[in-house]
Every structure is written in structure tokens, then in C-alpha cells.
Request: fold
Amino acid sequence: MPRPKCCRRIGGEPPCRIFKPAGIPRVVLEEIILSMDEFEAIRLADLEGLYHEQAAARMNVSRQTFGRILEEARGKVARVLVEGLALRIEGGATEMAEKRTFGCHQCQHKWTVPYGTGRPAACPVCQSNNIARAEEERGVGRAGQGCRRNASRKLE
Ligand SMILES: [Zn+2]
Reply:
């Protein structure tokens, strides 16, 4: 299975994306979607045993947001086990949080780069270095905070 295009702050990729009860055809099973951030919350809190505060910092969200993600995730996993449902792990706001959007003042080109790759030196289209974080222009927040606020907003 190929890795997702943008690697967000997830320390562990799920070894498989779909869990289902044995012997029951998937077509008749109700499927619960567990987002990647919910998966990560369970991994950090229940497997690594981190305090919510530490786990929230790892995921770059507030402690309150982490608590909500974890609660939602545990509820889903509990339903899957108790009601015998299928579970699919996919998507989630965290992938959004891992991308930064830049805009070029010269040619108005906009593009995204994955987190952790550093600030691009120039516009990939016109090579101008007159570029800026697009989030700043929209007034979401200062560089480095925009993604965090975006992430928590998406989850609310
Ligand atoms: Zn440009």
C-alpha cells in the first residue's frame, strides 16, 4: 500500500486500512470510518500511553481538541467491537494541517508544500522570490499558527 502523499505528524501508519469481522461479507456490514487523526489519537494515548497534553503537542492540536478526537475515536472503535462492524481508516483533517499554502505576488500562482520541507525559496512557476504564506493573507494566523488553528477548526 503506498504511503499517503503528505506525511502529517503521524508516527505510525496503520498496517492495514480495513478491519472487518471474519466470515461476514463486506457488502452487508456497516462500515465505520476512523480518520487518520482519530487513529493517531488512539495510538498516542492508548498504545504509547502519553498524557493528553503530550499527545496534543505531538499532533499539533490543543488539549481540548485532542480530547475530543480521542473520545470520538474510542467511541467508534467500541461500536465496531460491540456491534460487530467493519472499520476503515482513512482521511481526516490532519492531512490538511500538514500542508502549507504559498502564493506568488508576481504571477498569483498558489501551491502547497508538505509540512517540514521548509519555506520554498522561489515560485515554481516564475522563479520570483516575492512569495508569502497564503494563510497569512487570509488572516488565519501568523506563520506556524495557521495550521494549528485550521486543524482545530476543521475538527469542530
Ligand atoms: Zn510566480
